Amino acid sequence: MNHFIEKTFQLKDKNIEIDMDYCEEIEFKGRTSLFYRGTLAYKPEACPHCGIANNDYVIVSNGKRSSRLTLTAKSGLPAYLILAKQRFLCKACGRSFTAKTSIVNPDCYITNQVKQQIMDRATRVTCETDIAKDTFVSPNTVRRVIHETARAIRIRSTEQLPKHLSFDEFKSVKSVKAAMSFICCDTLSHKIVDVVEDRKTHSLSAYFSRFSRQARYQVQTITIDMYEPYMHLAKRWFPNAKIILDPFHLIQALNRELDRTRIRYMNEVRYKDSRLYNKLKRYWKLILKPKSDLMSTEYHRFPLFDWLTNTRSIVDYLIQHDDVLKDTYQMVHQLGDALRDRNWQRYQEILAQSRSMTLSKGLRRVLRTFRKYVVVLETFVIIIVQLLCFEANNFCVIFILVAFSQLV
């Protein structure tokens, strides 16, 4: 009978002795369940704490500790093993320890057979709750087993990195504590190198410190946005790499401040001029559009306008009522056009003119950042890279910060 139960539940540990006279059907967690009893005992070879060999009865028995282990279900009923584990006392160091078994991990109550069953079901198209019902464990246990297994089988080479890396962040899953997760990819092949749970400096430093010096020193360029910790991280771990700013993020920062300026002015006139408020609210996309995409020759009827007009005239009408919005609009689109046209000289001239214009506080803050990381360059190089990995079919101009060492 003992051999039959061991074979049935695949309890391949010779140190476990099953009680052949005990097999009860007990109501547990609202279900009829099968309960078995067993004992785990053996003679330890040495103390795991002090390492002394077990000679002359230096290690003696010191009672038992029972654990309820979850077994694989049998006959449609959940099954459990009440395993009494032998406790030992080391006379040399005075410390105690418990007998260990191969059927379950230390400090765990889910047997490895159940975990294997969970992983087998996880490879199929099913949900965690269904797996939990089939194996009579909680969905949290299923999720934990999947994550532990994924970490165990994950193998990443620490001896090689792509020569051209791109850093970015994204909103991850709810289980991630950080607001944003970090993603790293090969700029040229667009293959994801890895994903890190958060983008904090200490987490990224711990991650990149695993790679060999040779692998890190072979990286030639790193494409990033204006997130300053990325720059310090790149300088520390990739000293031979040139830092690259992606203009997509520059234009995105400009448009963000332009839209905030529109919203500020829109709220100011909400109760003073409701018609203008409604127009500002409805046609916000036109304000963000590049000037070259606006129509100025054909006239049509547009909602909220009592006359025939076109998209360029609508924008001119919306921005003419506020000097801050008007100057902010002009500055944002002039800088954006210079970036898209890869006109570095024009970009510098526009940036210099911004000091005398009536701009929003948010845009002035963004321009200060631009001056910090772009204007002080000794050399400016233009490269066209199709950043499909992060920005989806967007041909971007990349500004290599050759003089980054002067900024930090």
UniProtKB/TrEMBL annotation:
Residues 165-373 form the Transposase IS204/IS1001/IS1096/IS1165 DDE domain. InterPro entries: Transpos_ISL3, Transposase_DDE. Pfam families: DDE_Tnp_ISL3. The keyword DNA-binding does not apply. It comes from the Bacteria. The chain crosses the membrane at residues 373-404. Keywords: Membrane, Transmembrane, Transmembrane helix. Coiled coil: none annotated. NCBIfam families: transpos_ISL3. PANTHER family: TRANSPOSASE FOR INSERTION SEQUENCE ELEMENT IS1557 (PTHR33498:SF1). This is ISL3 family transposase. It comes from Suicoccus acidiformans. The lineage of its organism: Bacteria, Bacillati, Bacillota, Bacilli, Lactobacillales.
